[in-house]
Each structure stands twice: as structure tokens, then as C-alpha cells.
Amino acid sequence: MRLGEALCSFASRAGLVLGLALAATPALGDPTLRPHEIVYRFTFHGLSGGDLRLKLTPGAQAGEWQYETRSEPSLLARLVVSPDSFERSWFSVTPTGIRPERYLLEDGSSSHAENSDLHYDYATSHLRGTARGAPLDLALEPGLQDVMTIRLAPTVDLLAGREPGEYAMLDGRDVKHFIYTRVATEQLNTALGTLETVVITSDRKGSDGRGRTWRYWYAPSLGWLTVRAEQREGGETRLALAVRSLKWLDGRAAGTP
Fold first, then answer.
1. How many alpha carbons lie under 13 Å from residue 56 in its C-beta half-sphere?
2. Which residues are paired to 65 by β-bridges?
3. CB contact set of 67 (below 8 Å; sequence gap of 6+)
4. Strand boundaries in the chain, DSSP class E
5. What are the tens digits of pLDDT across the range 166-218?
6. CB under 8 Å, gap of 24 or more: what pairs does 105-112 form?
7. Within 10 Å of residue 166's Cβ, how many Cβ atoms?
8. Is residue 256 a part of any domain in this protein?
9. Spatial distance between the Cα atoms of 225 and 152, rounded to a whole number of angstroms
10. Confidence at residue 60, expressed as pLDDT on a 0 to 100 scale
11. Cα 85 versus chain centre, distance
């Protein structure tokens, strides 16, 4: 089971799509991603599900990256998610955005029934491998992201001066489309201090707007780092992730260009 999905299952026992743009990004004025480790606290109606730890590190070649999520579930959340599970993506950044190369999920169980290992074959325009324990061979549509790279795709677009828009994402074995829209600015108190943020919503394409939606708070002063994300339903906050800590791994202090 995917880490985000498992934590949501702790809350509702349902496979919810996090689709989060949780991305450590460079200081304002720096147009490139920065290596980082960032921690978010996950809650469901105020009840803690534990933490998510995301780590972005550079690959062997310029423009190549590795992105990893590990869970640190609360005692209750450990009923549905293993602390040994993790997700990892390999991708590159191109002039048009993120180009995924591989996605790996280890569910942390002895059965490995929910494991995934997918490779993007751009020469043949196919995505091949194993998804949730079963073989998958899927035709690639332009710009297809996985559940890890979609967290960074809006950030990369914002850094390039583009507004986030529509993104296709492979969720398990299904491709879903999401529309990102800038809606407001807001001053937000966080563990990193009081920050001016830009609020962007995400809705599944074709929805009537009355179901579950996501709302993200991006801090331009932190290079469009997401400092909070919420899933809302019926005007109520259902799920939330709030930044707890941020560590840059390139030796520069936060805010240093």
C-alpha cells in the first residue's frame, strides 16, 4: 500500500489520493531544485497519524534527481502502514517540466503484495513493470506523473514562471487528471515562522466541485515550498499536512540564494 494511501486508510480505511505538491524547493531567485529533507505532520480531524519524511537528492547527471518518502506512523497508524515502507522516484527536469524515469514502492510487509516497480520507456512510449503486485504495460500519455513526481511538478512549473495547470497521474493502475488553480494569498503561521503564501487548489478533472478537494499553501519566500496541505469535504478540513522541519542538504541556509 502506498504510504500516503496507508495513512489515509488509518483515517478512513479508503484509498485516498494525496496528490500533494509537497516539495522542498530552492530559495527565492534560484531557478533550480535544492537537495533537502523535510518533515510533515499528518492529521485526520485533528488526530495525529504520524509524520511523513521526504528527501530530495541529486542524481549522477545534472538535472537528475531521486525523491523519497518514508513514513513515521503513530501507534494507531501502524495498524495499516509499516514504518519500513517507502516510496522512491527517479526523474529529470526538462524545459517543459518533470520527466519521470522510475517509480518504486516497497510496502514493508512480508508478502510484498502491494509493491510497485515501474519504468518509463520513452523510446516506445510505454510504462512497464509491476503495479500493486501485478504486471502493468501502459501506453504513456504526454506529461504522465506518478504519485511522487506530481508533488514536485507544480513547484517546478512555478519556478519556471508557469502557472500550475492540468496534470495526469498514475494512481495504482489508473490514470487520473487533476486541475490546479491559484485562488488566494494568505499569511500563515508555521513551524518555520510566519510566511506569506499563495493558495492553490487541486480538483479532479470533471468533478462537480462538491466532493473532496485539496488546498495547498506555497511560500514564495522559500522558493514555492508547500508549507501546508489540506483535503476538504463539505467545507470541513478532513486531512491535513503541516510542515514540521526543513533541512537543506546542500550546505546553504534557508533563504540563501
1. 26
2. 58, 91
3. 54, 55, 56, 88, 89, 90, 91, 148, 149, 151, 152
4. 36-44, 47-58, 64-73, 86-94, 97-106, 116-121, 126-131, 134-139, 166-171, 174-190, 193-204, 213-219, 225-233, 236-248
5. 999 998 889 999 999 999 999 999 999 999 999 999 999 988 767 789 999 99
6. 105/2, 107/1, 107/82, 108/81, 108/82, 108/83, 108/84, 109/82, 109/85
7. 10
8. no
9. 10
10. 87
11. 16
What does the block give as the cell for 246?
A: 526543513
CATH number reported for the structural domain that contains residue 75 in this entry: 2.40.360
**93 touches 63 (CB < 8 A):** yes
| Block mean pLDDT (10 aa), the chain, length 257 | 45 33 37 84 84 92 92 63 80 94 84 86 96 92 94 90 94 92 96 95 84 88 87 86 91 55
Full-prediction pTM beyond 0.85?
A: no
According to the model, what pLDDT value does residue 207 have?
Answer: 81
- Estimate to the nearest angstrom the gap between the alpha carbon of 201 and the chain centroid: 14
Structural domain includes residue 254: no
Q: How far apart are CA 11 and CA 64, in angstroms?
A: 35
Q: What is the CA radius of gyration of the chain?
A: 17
Range of the domain at 41: 3-248
Residue 5, SS3 per DSSP:
helix
> What is the CA 15 to chain-centroid distance, rounded?
15
Is 41 inside a domain boundary?
A: yes
- The C-alpha cell that represents 231 in the structure block: 483535503
In a domain, 229, yes or no: yes
Q: How many domains does the chain have?
A: 1
Distances from the Cα of 33 to the Cαs of 97, 143, 241, in angstroms?
12, 19, 21
